[in-house]
Every structure is written in structure tokens, then in C-alpha cells.
Amino acid sequence: MAQEYPQLLLNNQLCFPLYACSRKIVGSYTPFLKPLGLTYTQYLVLMVLWEHESMSVGQLGNILYLDAGTLTPLLKRLEKAGYVTRERSKDDERITIISITEAGNQLKEQCKDIPSKISAGSSALTREEAGELYRMLYVFLKEE
Amino acid sequence: MAQEYPQLLLNNQLCFPLYACSRKIVGSYTPFLKPLGLTYTQYLVLMVLWEHESMSVGQLGNILYLDAGTLTPLLKRLEKAGYVTRERSKDDERITIISITEAGNQLKEQCKDIPSKISAGSSALTREEAGELYRMLYVFLKEE
DNA sequence: TTCAATTATATTGCGCGCAATATATTTATG
DNA sequence: CATAAATATATTGCGCGCAATATAATTGAA
Q1: Which domain holds residue A67?
Q2: What is the spatial distance between Cα B122 and Cα B120, in angstroms, rounded to a whole number?
Q3: pTM of the model
Q4: Which of B9, B72, B87, B126 is least surrounded, with the fewest CB atoms within 10 Å of its CB?
């Protein structure tokens, strides 16, 4: 059947390649993360904590664009694995402070070569193009 | 804590903005799709069927980069809603043929203005930039 | 022709991702 | 000071998304 509404064609939408691409690239981390017992989202959380050491659930959510419904159970799994601690702030009992543990910091050593292995496979874009892509994605992210 | 491995900084990775961006844009469809009782992925499936009318589960998966583990339950929900039918091929009983129904085709009328409403909110990129973004995403998608 | 390999879909299990709601704490207001 | 509003996190429910496994049909090779 011919499509009388060209705007409804999959190939005319920016959203679909973005969605498919995101899943594909996130999936490309699995071979490296699964042996460590990590998911991609857990890896993102750890990257933030490797940089900042300690942070509230809400701050983590602001940085990663995730809410407590996603983060709370994920953080409990990381806690159970021994990579983070969860404790209520003394100053404000509403806030839960997440901190990286010694074991969590040691994971960094096992993860430090992952980015280069990932980007090795996706050399189809030049450095400039990748930079431009990065910039455009942040235009969307920062919007409104 | 300073990060001794700059490649592990969130802001140095292309994958994260892609992942966050994808979720944000997919989420922007919700206000339009939820009143119709559809999810974004169901909407993608319907877009393919509005164009092609009838197709196997495997073909749908090839187009949308999704596997039977995702598609089978999703298609059963669309069947239950009356938007598609699922029947085994006469020629090859392994194949399940998905076909759009009358009711499924009528949904097209209610969806035809969604793309313009979505892109209206994301006018931060010029037409040329959007085209360039689209092209780069497909470079990743088609890779290997 | 028989049976092993291949193909197509379905099922199971688990971790998101997010909307909606609940709970507890803090802040603001009268 | 009492209490209503705001804030931060937790819980619940549901639909993906995907790996792993299962099932059934078809194809291929001896």
C-alpha cells in the first residue's frame, strides 16, 4: 500500500534512527560489561561516581536524565554487589546519599579500556563528524 | 575526585547523549500516543504496516531492529486491541504473518499530525543540520 | 528417506524506563 | 506553633529490549 502521508514513513523521521542507533550502541557495550556483571545504565552511574565519589539520588538523576523509579532499584543492586553505599543525609533525612566504595573504585581499572574498544568499531565517522553529532545531540538534550 | 581516565568521563562519550536523547525524544511522543492507547514501539510497528499492509514477524524485526522476544508480545497486544491480525503462513508454517486491520488503518488518520507536532518542539536544529544528523545516525545503523 | 542442521517464532527471565502513587521530611505561611 | 505546601525518595505496575532457551517446521545431505 502506498502511504498517502509521507510524514508517517519511517524513513522520514529523525526519531527512529536515533532510537535504533541508541539501542545498537548501548548493546555494543554488553560484551565488555556483562563479564563484569554490569548493565550499561549501572556503568553510567559508576562513571558519575568515579568522577564525583558521592552524590544524592536526585543529583544522579539530573546528570543522567533518570528518575528515582529507575535509580532506586538499580542503586540497590549496585549496593548489593558492594559497589556503592546508600545512606540518608544527616542534614536532610529526605535525601539518600550514594557513595562509591573501594570495590566500586577498583572496577574503574577494569573499565578504563572499554571506551577505546567501543569507538574502534565505529570508525565510520571522522573525528569532526563525531564532534558535530555530539553537539547536535546536546542541542536536543538541553532544549527547553 | 579528579578522574585520571578522561575517556571515562560522561561528557567525553558519544554514547551517553545518544542514549539520553533517544529517551527524551521517544518520551515526547507519549502525550500524543497515550491518548490513543499506543506506545512508541507499537506506533513504529503500525507505521511499517501502514506502508506495507502485511509482513512476517522477521521482516518487521529487520526493519525495526527488534527481535521476536520484543515483537511477539507487542504484536499480541496490538492484535488484542484489534489493530493487527496474526496468522501462520500457508506456504511455511514457521512464519507468522502480521496484517493491518481496518481499525489499524483508521488509526493512521489520528496519527498523521503527530510528526509535525513533535518536530515543532525541536526547532533548535536547522533543516540542514537535521539532515546531517539523520545521515550520521544511519552511518552507525548500517555499520558492519 | 531419514535425520541432522537450519530457520522462524515463541517463551522465560531480568533489568530498565517511566508514569502514578505513597511516604516521610523539611519549609513556608498564617 | 500548627499545618499546609513543597521536596526527596521509594514503591507499584506495565511495556519494552534482549539474551537464552524451547518448539516446531523446513531444508539439506548422506
Answers
A1: 2-142
A2: 6
A3: 0.92
A4: B126
